[in-house]
Amino acid sequence: MPMPFVPPLITQELTAIEEADRCQYCSIVERESGGERVIIENDHWIVFAPYCSRLPFEMWMLPKKHASSITAPDCLTSLGTTLRDALLKLKTLLDDPSYNYMFFQMDNSSYHLNIRIEPKLSIAAGFEKNTDVFINTMPPEDAAGSLREVDAPLKV
Ligand SMILES: [Zn+2]
After folding, report:
1. Which domains does the chain have, with CATH numbers?
2. pLDDT at 155
3. Which of 9, 53, 92, 113 could bridge across to 152 with cysteines, CB 3.0–4.6 Å?
4. 3-state SS class at 65
5. How many angstroms separate the alpha carbon of residue 65 from the centre of ligand 1?
6. pTM for the complete prediction?
7. Which pLDDT score is estimated for 85?
8. 104 φ, ψ to 5°?
9. Ligand 1 mean position to 150 CA, how many Å?
């Protein structure tokens, strides 16, 4: 069931997207590709620890070709295996932590699908709750390096 309103955070993001010269997520894909924050990169997807990680071992997964939702052509190509591999790396490195993953997609061609994985490794305390500013003691470059090195074969 759809929500009866658009959350303020999404409204702010849409406003920023509409005001930008080009897709900011496409810029992020270009900037992160091949970089030290990359965890997984293949022909269709990039998984990386965002520069502005709010949480330790936070991961973002973006299609390398602009797409607003998983229904876009080629978007489902390797989505499942890439997401599986990212989650297996997290499970292997951090002893199967709890996590949330969120799909951000929209029926708006300007929007760039993004999937965010947030391990539950830290607790939002008074500072975070009162300021909405998160203290993250794990540099994203170090988190990405550790996750990238994990060989997490699928066990069936
Ligand atoms: Zn884009």
Report:
1. 8-149 (3.30.428.10)
2. 63
3. 92
4. coil
5. 7
6. 0.91
7. 95
8. -105, 110
9. 29
Identify the segments of the chain with pLDDT beneath 50: none
User: Which pLDDT does position 153 carry in this prediction?
Assistant: 67
pLDDT of amino acid 156: 56
CA of 8 to the centre of ligand 1 (A): 21
Predicted local confidence at residue 74, as pLDDT: 80
User: Tell me, what's the pLDDT at 72?
Assistant: 84
Ligand 1 centroid to Cα of residue 1, in Å, is: 27
Residue listed under structure tokens 């390398």: 64
Written as six digits, the tokens of 15 are 């406003």
CA 56, CA 31: separation in Å to the nearest integer? 21
Look-up of token digits 């797409």: 67
- Assign residue 74 a region (left: φ > 0; alpha: ψ between -120 and 50; beta: otherwise): left
What are residue 93's phi and psi, to 5 degrees? Answer: -70, -40
φ and ψ at 22, to 5 degrees?
Answer: -150, 170
Indicate the SS3 state at residue 99: strand
